[in-house]
Design goal:
The structure is a single chain. With about 300 residues, the chain is an all-alpha fold. The protein folds into two domains: about 150 residues, no CATH class; about 150 residues, no CATH class. The relative contact order is 0.11.
Length: about 300
């Protein structure tokens, strides 16, 4: 038990360091802070060997190492669960689920950085992964340990329903972080600061908007599939596909919220500022569904 908790603690500190390095990368990328290289002006932002390049590379490697340790922690917890209850799903309580969401957020971000090479996004997306890990660490110790599963959870359904649903939450979290980034960049452009401040390191508003939309288009079908699997599991465990349990209801509300976003974007031209605000609103609803419902509302998912 202590082995997995130790690895989760190491993950927390690595994500904290990665978040700090990404913010350091943004600050160091400002033209005024770029060191001069022979033959080039001091304002060049892509110079090999600059502080920004060094911090950016270090941030990526620390993030990657944090992901590895996070995966090791989940794997160790899966082994511990196998010893206790014969099932190895390392997302069987609130603490483990938060740790898995953090893992999925960081994995999604690294794939995004690998494809697009935009490190500034890490300051916003890795921060959410760190917050998820930090929120898990704030739970009382009794919620962090691997206890025997209640009969309803001790099923093969836990491997597919929970993992798919949590992965959709991670995609929505990425979209929420990109929404915050969009609003900050937009505000800087309105004030004429975008080219002379830290915001110069941000991608264009169009690119941020596009990436946020793509993240939602990943999360939306995953949440739909996860909800369907949950209904099938409910019928297997409790004899009915739907019982209007608070968690079920809020999962449906979240799905409808993002469905409305996609509809408005495709048919009403909801892009840019309105889309960014909606992405942040959607993330807040996900947080309530994932976290608030468990602690504020009683129901069949109270153990989650």
């Amino acid at each position: 038990m202590f082995r997995s908790l130790f690895l989760f603690d190491v993950t927390f500190w690595l994500y904290l360091a990665a978040m700090g390095l990404y913010f350091g990368y943004i600050i160091a990328s400002r033209k005024a802070l770029q060191p001069a290289v022979a033959g080039h002006p001091a304002g060049t932002t892509a110079e090999e060997g600059s502080w920004a390049d060094t911090l950016g590379l270090l941030a990526t490697w620390v993030t990657f190492f944090g992901l590895i340790v996070n995966g090791m922690a989940l794997g160790t917890r899966a082994y511990e669960r196998m010893q206790i209850s014969g099932t190895f799903a390392p997302w069987s309580n609130q603490f483990e689920a938060m740790a898995y969401v953090s893992f999925a957020i960081i994995a999604g971000y690294l794939l995004l950085e690998l494809k697009y090479g935009i490190k500034a996004i890490g300051a916003f997306v890795v921060s959410i992964g760190f917050i998820a890990m930090g929120a898990a660490s704030l739970l009382p110790y009794r919620y962090q340990t691997a206890e025997p599963l209640v009969p309803a959870l001790n099923s093969y359904w836990i491997y597919i329903h929970v993992s798919i649903t949590l992965t959709s939450y991670a995609a929505f979290a990425m979209a929420g972080g990109l929404g915050v980034m969009y609003l900050l960049k937009e505000r800087a452009e309105r004030r004429g600061m975008a080219a002379t401040s830290v915001y110069a390191t941000f991608p264009s508003l169009e690119k941020i908007d596009e990436l946020g939309y793509k993240a939602i288009m990943v999360g939306f079908p995953l949440l739909a599939f996860g909800t369907i699997l949950g209904a099938m599991w409910a019928n297997y465990a409790w004899g009915g596909y739907w019982s209007w349990d608070p968690k079920e209801t809020w999962a449906l509300i979240v799905w409808l919220i993002y469905g409305a976003y996609i509809h408005a974007r495709m048919n009403r031209g909801w892009e840019g500022h309105r889309a960014a605000v909606y992405q942040i609103f959607g993330l807040l609803m996900v947080v309530f569904c994932f976290w608030g419902v468990n602690f504020l509302l009683s129901g069949l998912h109270a153990y989650a």
